[in-house]
Amino acid sequence: MTTATKIKLQGTNVSVCLLPPIEILEARYKLSDDHEGIVARDFKLIPGKTRRGTSEGAPVGTYSNSSLRQQVEVTWMDGDIKYKVRVQKSRIVYRMANGGFDESLVIDHIDGNPNNNHPCNLRPLTYHENFGNRASALKDKYPKKDPHLPTGVTRDHKYTSGVRYIGKTTIKGITHKCYFENPRAAQHWLATIKENHLGFSARRDEKGLIIGAPQWKSMQ
């Protein structure tokens, strides 16, 4: 068994497996016009020598990643050599839907939901852009102490002279943190920070505004 070549994500020491050749992916999967992104084709790995395979239309991927992103194990033969890699499902979907891309980038879920792998919900970003753009998709797995507060905003429980809130986010390795009298002000400040440092890649709402932007911006 041989594992495929790995590549480091831009600006990090994090390594990911390079995707299998496109002909391998197209032989295994087909695009699905829903949140699954891809479903399986009917195939067997080594016809006549193994019963391992999948049925047409079967779901693809397992939730074996702590961030709730589905991963897919792909095994294929190249002559007498058997390869096996494990990659994020979203990377396969994006590759099949859009062709080749810079694999030193990560695939971001535009709506913040890592379970929505529809091709239109995926885009490539750098690791740090993606990290600074994290949404609340993990709030059920890792609940906040104050779950009613907006993403990135927490109550300052160490402050004893009244009520104070903390706005905090990390973008491109730099942590931005500030204190506020109310959570709405903290949320607006976070939106400004993301607009300034992430630009077009900042996650936005249905009106095209960065999540948390003050209401007056929608009236401009």
List the helices and strands and how they pair.
Elements: E1 6-8, E2 15-17, H1 22-28, E3 29-31, E4 38-40, E5 43-44, E6 53-54, E7 71-78, E8 81-88, H2 89-98, E9 106-109, E10 122-125, H3 127-132, E11 153-155, E12 165-171, E13 174-180, H4 183-198
Antiparallel strand pairs: 1-2, 3-4, 5-6, 7-8, 9-10, 11-12, 12-13
Q: Which ranges are low-confidence, i.e. pLDDT below 50, for 5 or more consecutive residues?
A: none
Order of helices and strands: EEHEEEEEEHEEHEEEH
The top-level CATH class of the largest domain is: Alpha Beta
Strand order within the widest sheet?
A: 11-12-13
- CA-based shape: elongated
- Roughly what percent helix? 10-25%
**Class based on secondary structure composition and strand pairing:** alpha+beta
User: Would you tell me which CATH topology of the largest domain applies?
Assistant: Homing Intron 3 (I-Ppo) Encoded Endonuclease, Chain A
CATH architecture of the largest domain: Alpha-Beta Complex
Number of structural units classed as domains: 2
The main sheet comes to:
3 strands, antiparallel
Which terms would index this structure?
single chain, 3-stranded antiparallel beta sheet, two-stranded antiparallel sheet, 4 helices, Homing Intron 3 (I-Ppo) Encoded Endonuclease, Chain A, 18% helix, elongated, alpha+beta, 13 strands
Can you offer a commentary on this structure?
There is one protein chain. With 220 residues, this protein is α+β, with helices and mostly antiparallel strands. The protein folds into 2 domains: 6-130, Alpha-Beta Complex (Homing Intron 3 (I-Ppo) Encoded Endonuclease, Chain A), CATH 3.90.75; 144-219, no CATH class. Helices cover 18% and strands 26% of the residues. The chain contains 4 helices and 13 strands. The strands form 6 sheets. Strands 11-12-13 form a 3-stranded antiparallel β-sheet. The longest helix has 16 residues, at 183-198. The protein starts with 5 loop residues before the first strand and ends in a 22-residue tail after the last helix.
